Amino acid sequence: MQALHTAATGMAAQELNVQVISNNIANLRTTGFKKQTAAFQDLIYEHVRRVGAQASDQGTIVPVGVDIGGGVKTVGTPRSMTQGTLSQTGNDLDLAISGEGFFKILMPDGTFQYTRDGTFQMDNQGRVVTAQGNPVQPTITIPNNASGLTVNEQGQVSVTLPGSSTSAVQGQLGLTRFINKAGLQPVGNNQFTETPSSGPPQDGTANTEGYGKITQGSLEQANVDVVSEMSDLIAAQRAYEMNAKVISAADQMMQSTTALFR
């Protein structure tokens, strides 16, 4: 019975939907996390009688057809890149982006990855790095005897050196944009890589046209709405239960048919 297969595709789809929702909820407190949603499409149809077909020799046309659907399939888990709220931390190297752009990170293999997570530290060489020790680009080194570290909205990093009463610029953090930021590939550690869908990276300066500004002493929170996620979770659970009920009903109908031959 086709209903068994159709309902099974529905259960599989809702299982994936719950997995996506659970990942969103699990990352509720993950800095810079961007939530995902599951997108579905109906499967190919069996056209028992095509709409618009000729119904008689007199040329009458069938006004409606008989189309039996094959179920549902998952076509993607698009990521929402909307702005998350900023939370103040007071740490000098906690940086948040308000608007467009990603921090550019140099990986050990020489490639670049991109992140909205501005939880930065200094390594044993004084370089500004991520939690995994990978340097933020362009590489900025803070002298070990420096004080008064500041980062302005354009990404200029300044410190006060011994014997000086004024701050000196040590480097300039940049931001990177993409034509289709939702097309970036997540790789874990709050980081993304470019793909043919995202388009090539476009490096620029913060707080200039098309790029967001940098806020020191703050971090961007995940853009996950708990109430919305819980509502979606309940809806997915009910949809799964209804598909399971269809399988049960189809099984009972097959049992009834089998009983006729006993």
TrEMBL record:
<protein>
    <recommendedName>
        <fullName>Flagellar basal-body rod protein FlgG</fullName>
    </recommendedName>
</protein>
<dbReference type="InterPro" id="IPR020013">
    <property type="entry name" value="Flagellar_FlgE/F/G"/>
</dbReference>
<keyword id="KW-0975">Bacterial flagellum</keyword>
<keyword id="KW-0966">Cell projection</keyword>
<keyword id="KW-0282">Flagellum</keyword>
<dbReference type="InterPro" id="IPR012834">
    <property type="entry name" value="FlgG_G_neg"/>
</dbReference>
<dbReference type="Pfam" id="PF06429">
    <property type="entry name" value="Flg_bbr_C"/>
</dbReference>
<dbReference type="Pfam" id="PF00460">
    <property type="entry name" value="Flg_bb_rod"/>
</dbReference>
<feature type="region of interest" description="Disordered">
    <location>
        <begin position="188"/>
        <end position="212"/>
    </location>
</feature>
<dbReference type="InterPro" id="IPR037925">
    <property type="entry name" value="FlgE/F/G-like"/>
</dbReference>
<feature type="domain" description="Flagellar hook protein FlgE/F/G-like D1">
    <location>
        <begin position="96"/>
        <end position="159"/>
    </location>
</feature>
<keyword id="KW-0969">Cilium</keyword>
<dbReference type="InterPro" id="IPR019776">
    <property type="entry name" value="Flagellar_basal_body_rod_CS"/>
</dbReference>
<dbReference type="GO" id="GO:0071978">
    <property type="term" value="P:bacterial-type flagellum-dependent swarming motility"/>
</dbReference>
<dbReference type="InterPro" id="IPR001444">
    <property type="entry name" value="Flag_bb_rod_N"/>
</dbReference>
<feature type="compositionally biased region" description="Polar residues">
    <location>
        <begin position="188"/>
        <end position="197"/>
    </location>
</feature>
<comment type="subunit">
    <text>The basal body constitutes a major portion of the flagellar organelle and consists of four rings (L,P,S, and M) mounted on a central rod. The rod consists of about 26 subunits of FlgG in the distal portion, and FlgB, FlgC and FlgF are thought to build up the proximal portion of the rod with about 6 subunits each.</text>
</comment>
<feature type="domain" description="Flagellar basal-body/hook protein C-terminal">
    <location>
        <begin position="216"/>
        <end position="259"/>
    </location>
</feature>
<dbReference type="Pfam" id="PF22692">
    <property type="entry name" value="LlgE_F_G_D1"/>
</dbReference>
<comment type="similarity">
    <text>Belongs to the flagella basal body rod proteins family.</text>
</comment>
<dbReference type="InterPro" id="IPR053967">
    <property type="entry name" value="LlgE_F_G-like_D1"/>
</dbReference>
<dbReference type="InterPro" id="IPR010930">
    <property type="entry name" value="Flg_bb/hook_C_dom"/>
</dbReference>
<dbReference type="GO" id="GO:0009426">
    <property type="term" value="C:bacterial-type flagellum basal body, distal rod"/>
</dbReference>
<feature type="domain" description="Flagellar basal body rod protein N-terminal">
    <location>
        <begin position="4"/>
        <end position="34"/>
    </location>
</feature>
